[in-house]
Design brief:
Blueprint: E1 6-9, H1 13-20, E2 27-30, H2 36-40, H3 53-61, H4 67-72, H5 75-82, H6 84-93, E3 111-122, H7 125-145, E4 148-158, E5 164-175, H8 178-192, E6 199-207, E7 210-211, H9 222-240
Parallel strand pairs: 1-2
Antiparallel strand pairs: 3-6, 4-5, 4-6, 4-7
Helix pairs in contact: 5-6, 7-8
EC number: 2.7.7.7
Main location: cytoplasm
Enzyme class: transferase
């Protein structure tokens, strides 16, 4: 069929990922711990997972240009400069990755989330809230498509210097509606992110998932009314595409997920 694939094998997720990048677009690479100095260390530091353009620039100021430079650099200096991220990057340069490999991780859905890197720094709550609303809509739709409900809303925020914040709130009920997810996400934003601090990445996640049959109705029918509205919107999007209907806030200058025009 003319389809090529590169495969990486290793004793950890990190080494398997690094191996998969070494013989693209068609190859099989095995990368074990003894291979790290010979195969990984000569590579540019930007090839290490977790090192983006900004971090690459920061590392270059310290004279770190290759993965080997990073591995040999004093870890205490990296920790003072970058915090826990510095320690993790140093471990990665040594080929160390403690994240577990779960062969059954795809057998069940634990959460549904989405994150986006913004085209510029966002400073105001008003602009950040537009992104939270867009992401809440997307997460809610994916939850409904999977026939789930969730309770725990988590937001992830990162500034231009890669300082990261993650906070969660557990609702008193299960939901699959964007309004509920957004309300919790907005509350977390105002409670934990200082006004005026720039944001470059935003993420929204819904976890604690259960089958949608667990939905509890309310006395005044609000839940069922919202569910009917969501199903109607889902049918429109299934037939005509995601852009056929969306929030008016997405048409503002802060909107990202649905391009204007």
């Amino acid at each position: 069929m003319g389809i090529t694939i590169s495969v990486g094998l290793g004793p950890s997720k990190l080494l398997a990922k690094m191996a998969a990048e070494m013989q693209k677009p068609d190859g099989l690479t095995v990368l074990d711990y003894p291979d790290v100095p010979k195969k990984m260390w000569p590579l540019p530091v930007k090839e290490l997972f977790g090192v983006g353009p900004r971090m690459e620039a920061h590392l270059a100021k310290l004279g770190i240009h290759t993965i080997g430079d990073l591995a040999r650099f004093p870890v205490e200096v990296l920790v003072r400069r970058f915090g826990v991220v510095g320690q993790v990057l140093h471990q990665c340069a040594l080929g160390i990755d403690y994240s577990p490999v779960d062969p059954h991780s795809l057998d069940r859905v634990k959460s549904v989330g989405h994150q986006i890197t913004l085209p510029r720094d966002y400073y105001s709550y008003e602009d950040i809230e537009v992104i939270l609303l867009e992401l809440s809509e997307l997460v809610a739709r994916r939850v409904r498509l999977g026939n789930y409900l969730g309770r725990t809303v988590t937001i992830s925020l990162k500034d231009a210097e890669f300082n990261w914040l993650g906070r969660s709130y557990t609702l008193p009920y299960y939901t699959d509606t964007a309004a509920d997810i957004y309300a919790a996400a907005r509350q977390l934003l105002h409670r934990h992110w200082p006004p005026g601090r720039p944001v470059r990445l935003v993420g929204v996640n819904l976890s604690g998932l259960v089958p949608s049959a667990a939905r509890q109705e309310d006395l005044f029918g609000r839940v069922e009314k919202q569910a009917r509205l969501d199903r109607a919107c889902d049918r429109l999007k299934n037939r005509y595409g995601e852009r056929v209907i969306h929030r008016a806030a997405s048409l503002t200058q802060a909107g990202v997920l649905y391009a204007r025009g």
